[in-house]
What does this fold into?
Amino acid sequence: MGTEVITFGNTHLIMKLRFSPSLFTLGCLAILACGRPASATTYIFSVPESTLLNAWVTFLGGSSSAQLYGAYDVYIRPIQSSDIGVGGITGPALSSYTINSAGSPIANNVNGDKWNADINQHANSGLDTFLSIHFYFDQNDSKISLITNNANVVGKSYTNPTTNVGTVIGRQMPGNSPFNMTITSTDPGITGTVNFLFYATAMQFTDTSANTVSAKSVVKGPIEFSLQGVNTPEPSTLGFALGGAALIAARLLRRRNTSR
It folds into this structure.
C-alpha cells in the first residue's frame, strides 16, 4: 500500500491505493469514456460585432444603404427548419437547442453605453415562436452604441429611441465587441459551423450625415450568419477525466520509484 501526491495546478490529490494493472486500466477507461459523445453538447458562441455588421450590410443592400441605419436592439437564435426559405434564409438548421446564458457586448458602464442581454425571449414583437437571446442598449445610459457602418453617428445627439424621453449621444460599436451565447443541443451539427439568424431594431437616418432620424424603431430581419463555437465540457465529465489521469499518473510514478 503506497501513498502518492498528484498535483494538477493548485489541486493536490493524496492517494493511498494498492496499484495493479487493473487499476491502471481503470484510469485509462475513465479518460476514454470522457471522449465519447454525450446526448447533449454545450458550446459557447462568441459573435464579434463585425460579423453581425457584415451580415447587416449585406441584408440592407450594401454599404451606402446600410449607412442609413443604426441598430440598438438585436435578437439572435439558431436557425430552425421552418425558417429555411423565409427571407432568404438557407440554413442548415439546428434540430433542437437550449439557451443557457448570454453575455453583453458592452457589459460594463465605463463609457456610459452599456448593452444588456436576456435569454429565452421572443423576437419580432413576440411573433417569432422560437426562443432567442435579446441584446439591447441600456435605456438609462447617456450614450447609445450602434451597430452601424456609418461613422457619422459618433457624437451626434438623438432622442432616446426606447423611452422617447431625453437624449443620448451616438457611438459606433467596436467591431470586436463580443455577443456571447452558451447553447446546448442534441444535434451533432452544433460541433461544426452553426447558422444563426437575427432581427434588429434600428434608427433610420434622414441621410448618411446621420444628423436627424426619420424613424426611431425600424425592424429588419431575419438576417443570417454562421459561426463555429467552442465546446464546454460538463463539470462531471471533467472531474472523471482528471480522476482517470490521476490514477495513471500515480501508477507511472510508483513504477518509476520502484525501478530505482
Remarks:
- Residues 41-231 form one domain.
- Residues 114 and 144 are 8 Å apart (CA to CA).
